[in-house]
Task: structure prediction
Amino acid sequence: MTQPVFWALVGMALVVIGLYGLIVHAHLLRKILALNVISSGVFLVFIALARRAPRDGAAISPGPDPVPQAMVLTGIVVAVAATGLAVALIVRLRAMTGRTTLGDEADN
Amino acid sequence: MTPPGYRQGDGRNAGGQAETAAGARARGQIPSWARASIALLLLALFGGLALAVLSLSSPAPGLSEAVAARIGESGVSHPVTAVLLNFRAYDTLLELVVLVVAMIGAWSVGTARGCGGDTPGPLLRHLPRLLAPLMVLAAGYLLWAGAHSPGGAFQAGSLLGGVGILLCLSGRPLPDGLLGWPLRLAAMLGVIVFAALGAGVAALPGGSPLGWPPDAAKALILSIELAAMLSIGFILAALFAGGRP
Result:
């Protein structure tokens, strides 16, 4: 198993762990944390698989594939912005209803 | 080593499962059998994903050769910056739009209530005096370095956002004169400059939207990055503050 494949597997494990947290926890802050774990996993998969580019034997030795790296850079910023917006929505939900979970009123 | 009481406790939990499940449902939680089946399903998902990764051909050419072949025309020498601001400039423009939309969303659901709440401690009162100028300097360096080595508008912008958060935490609010349209203009600056320059080069003979002419590309990219850095910094700090000023 090469290093890129190993780190891609670690990234996928993070995605799955984050999915579990997203499904199991009802508290919205935990769901946001789970989403962030998922996105970290996706970024790790992208970065790891970008390293599969051949470094010797090619006519020009280009190094890692820069396109996934640029996409991850974009993704990080979008993830931060989405997290900020989600936290603002939770604060608003808590201020209006006093609850930090979604679902029917009867559940709480 | 497993403590001797561990297994017994586990068994008792399994025995009283009905009661536990009812209690859990009353609190809006998921019963343990459902948790276990979710975990199993996700484990299967992980297995599938792992098979997909393992079946990929290992020495993948990717797009690095395509990028390396055209990097001379991009105006910068670092491939990631070339991809971000030249080859896939639409992505980056829309990413700045996403940031602005997130800030508008956060502003439309509430007002900022300050960052710290309490009066800041001695460390937070005096440290920003020392750190903030250094961080602004480092942001400027990162912006410049992005043309030839790792760095660029996003790294510099997040550093500027850190300056904003530090100032907010240390109880130094923005002066009232800046809270109105100057703040909104700063947040929009990246999108405005990016879109205006992108549309401007389309008007050149033989130009296309966001297709920088190679001889002017470096100047265009640096001015876009400067505006984008300011916008990103302001927006990140505004998101931290949590709402409309």
The radius of gyration of chain A is 19 Å. Chain A has a mean pLDDT of 85.
